[in-house]
Design brief:
alpha+beta; Alpha-Beta Plaits; 8 strands
Length: about 200
């Protein structure tokens, strides 16, 4: 058996897919990706999902921008994604780690207001105090005013898409203070015809 240790690269990755509840889902997805400036991240899209990799600030900027571009169409759009940092052996795409911190999509995305419902789960790897790390980030959501409760295997966030993504990024970033390898899963929904479950 080979022993693995967390990689030293601080490259952040997110693999995600968009579910667009509309007959023109292909156009909505491809247009959202095309509209987003991805020049500061490594990007690969296949028939299942899209992978974005690079500096944390740019990965979150790009993922949010793609989601906002798709959801601003008014269609019911769901993003399912997994963010990761410190994955053992993660090195491909490190060239993007030399980029500066100036994000490219925030100004355009900020013009769009969307209410979203979100569930996220944080996984601080290889740390015995992982529950304390998770609890601390739930408190971050409280401070952001986006926390609306717990559900099985996740924490529920509701509110403006920009506040929710800020909560997600802060939680992901803060967890790295206690664990070098952090994984976070997210499910974000906008324009759903269904009422929030009580």
């Amino acid at each position: 058996m080979t022993n693995h240790v967390c990689g030293t690269s601080r490259i952040v990755g997110c693999r995600f897919n968009l579910g667009v509840m509309s007959d023109d889902f292909v156009n909505v997805i491809l247009s959202a990706i095309e509209e987003t400036d991805t020049s500061k991240v490594w990007k690969q899209t296949d028939d299942v999902s899209t992978c974005i990799r690079g500096r944390e600030s740019h990965v979150f900027d790009v993922v949010k921008a793609i989601y906002v571009a798709a959801a601003k169409t008014g269609k019911h759009v769901v993003l399912n994604g997994t963010f990761s940092i410190g994955c053992p052996g993660d090195s491909e795409g490190d060239v993007y780690m030399t980029e500066d911190d100036v994000v490219l999509n925030e100004a355009r995305a900020q013009d769009t207001k969307l209410d979203v419902s979100t569930q996220f789960a944080l996984y601080p790897m290889n740390t015995p105090t992982y529950m304390d790390v998770i609890a601390a980030q739930v408190n971050v959501a409280k401070e952001h005013g986006t926390l609306t409760g717990g559900v099985h295997y996740a924490t529920r966030l509701d509110g403006d898409v920009h506040q929710v993504f800020e909560t997600l990024q802060d939680s992901f970033h803060n967890a790295q203070n206690s664990a070098s390898h952090v994984v976070m899963t997210v499910n974000v929904s906008a324009n759903s015809p269904s009422k929030k479950a009580q």
